[in-house]
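Batch job 17 of 40 flagged for manual review because the log was empty.
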Amino acid sequence: MLACGGPSSDKDPNKRTEGDPGSAKAQKVAQMKMVNDYHSYARPNEAKVTHLNWKASVDFESREITGTATYSIKKGENAERIVFDVRELRIDSVVTNDGGAVSFELGPDDEFLGQPLNIPITSETETVSISYASAPGAEALLWVEGENPFLFTQSQAILARTWLPCQDSPGIRFTYHAEVSVPQGLMALMSAENPQKVNESNTYTFKMEQPIPSYLMALAVGNVEFRPIGERTGVYATPDVIEAAAYEFQEMDDMLKEAEELYGTYAWGRYDLLILPAAFPFGGMENPRLTFATPTIIAGDRSLTALVAHELAHSWSGNLVTNATWDDFWLNEGFTVYFEQRIMEAVYGREISEMLATLSYQSLEREVEEIMDTNPDDTHLKLHLRDRNPDDGMTAIAYDKGYFFLRMLEEKIGRVEFDQFLKTYFQTHAFEVMDTERFVDYLKKNLLAEGQFEALKIEEWIYGPGLPENTPSVQSERIAAVDLAVNAWSNGELATAELAWNDWVYQERYRFLTRLPATVKTAQLAELNEAYDINSTGNNEVLFAWLQQAIRHDYEPAFSRAEQFLIEVGRRKFLTPLYREMKETGKEEMALNIYRKARADYHAVSTNTMDALLGYIPEKES
C-alpha cells in the first residue's frame, strides 16, 4: 500500500487523527492509512484515486499521446489537495466537478520521480480531470516507425507517469474505462477487455473492472491479428508472426487450467498474449488480461514457454496480491517464480521443472556473488531502494532467492499444507496489497508452528545478506550428466561428435554452454559450431549463451552473429551480459560500434542500463 509522504512530504496527515478510535472520523482515517512509498509523490492518506475515465489520441507523427484523464477520488478528512505523479508531461488544464478549471502546481523535478502535480480540492470534489500530452521521448513509450508502425508502453516500475498523470505507486489500485483513437488500420489493445479485430472507426473502448495499480496500465497500437487458443486464451501478433505465435503457445490453456487447480479461480476473465516488436526490453510483462511478450521466446519448438507460465502466475502473485512498495518486490516475483515452477511441473513434469530450478540456482549463485562484492544489502529479500531507481531491485534476488525461500517452506512444512496456505493467501488478499512485515505476520499466524520462525531462519532469509544455510538443494540427474559432459569435453576426454547435443533439450544445451571453463580453446568452439551450427539456432536462450562464450573466448566467426543479435533484439536480459562481456574482454570499441547502430531501436529501459554500462553519453553524439 502507499502512503502519505512521497519524496516531497512535509508533514504526516495521520497526525490529524483525533478523538475516540471508534469515532466515525477515526475510522475513516484508518481506512485511508497506507504504508510509505518513497517512489511516489502521491499522498493517499489525504486523497487517492479509485476510478479512471481516460480519453486519448495516439499520434505517430508527433510521437505524442494527448488525452484527458478523469479520476474519481476518495478523500480523507479535511483534504485540501490531491497529488499526482507526472514526468515530462505537458499539463494543459485541470478541471474539478465542483470548481471548474482550477489552478494547479507542478513541484520540483527529480531525476527518477519526475514532479508532483498538486491539485486543490474541497469537501465537494468527487472528480478531477487532467488534460495533457506526453513528450516524444517519454520513457515508457517505444514508437516503431516505417511501413508497420507500432507503439507499446512499459509502465513498470515507475514509468506510467511518463504517459499518464497518475498516483504511480503499486499500493494504489483503481478501475478504468478508456477510449483511444489511433491511425487508420491499426488496432489498440490495453490491459483490459480487448477487441479481436480492427474496426473502421479507428476508436477503441476498453473496460478494466478489477482494480489495478498504475504499473499495470498498458497500451499497444499496431497492425496485429488475433488467434484463439482456448475458450479463455488467445494470441495477438503482427501478420508475419501470428501463425508461429499461435503454434508456439498452444499449451497456454493447459497452463491456465493447471494454475487454477493449484491456487484457485483465475480472476481476470481472459488470458491473452501479445507478441511485441523485438525491442521490448523484458521477456514479458504481466499486464492483466494481456501479457506483453518478447518474440525471442518463439523458438519453433515450444521450448521457452516457461516465460508464459511466469507471466500467467503473476495473475495471482502480483496482479491479484500486489507488493505494497518496490522494496517489497520479492512478494511479486519470488512468489511468481515458485508458482511458475509448479505450473511447469504440472504441465511438463518434474524432470523439466527441476532443470529450470537448477538454472535458476546457477543464476542466483552468480548474482549473489557479484552483489556481495558491491552492496550486500541488495541481497536482502526486503529491498532498500529509497532515493534509487526501483529498477535496481530487478535482480535474481527478488526472483530466485524469493523462489528458494518459498521452496524451503514447502519442503519443511509439506507441499499439501503449503499449497493450502498459498491458495488461502491469494483468496484472502485478492485485489489488495501486501508488504513484507504484514506477510511475515500472516506467515506466523497461518503456517508456522511455535519455534519454526527461528528454526527456519525466516529473519535471515528476508532481512539478511546472501543465501542462508538451509537454502534447498536442487537435484537434476540430467543437469548432472551435462556437467560431466562439460568436464570431459573441455579436457579432451569426450569428442565433440560424442556429445548428446541433438538429444538434449534447451535447458541442457544452455547449461553446457554456460558451464564452459576459461580453459576452452577457440578451436574447440569452432569444432562445436561446425558440428551443431549453434550460430543458427532458433532458440535465443541457447544463442545468447553461445554468443557470450564466443565473445569471452575470442571466437571471431560468431562476432557478426553477435552484432546482428544485438541490433535485432532489445531484451535487457541479453543485452547487458553481452555488452559487459565485450567491455570486460577488451572489446569496448566493438561494443560501442554496435551500440551506436542499435541504440535508437532500444526501449529507454534498456538504453538507461546500457548507457551507464558503456559510459555512453548521447548528447555528445553528432
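Reviewer: the log was empty due to a logging misconfiguration, but the result itself is present. The first strand starts at residue 47 and ends at 59. Unflagging and moving on to job 18.
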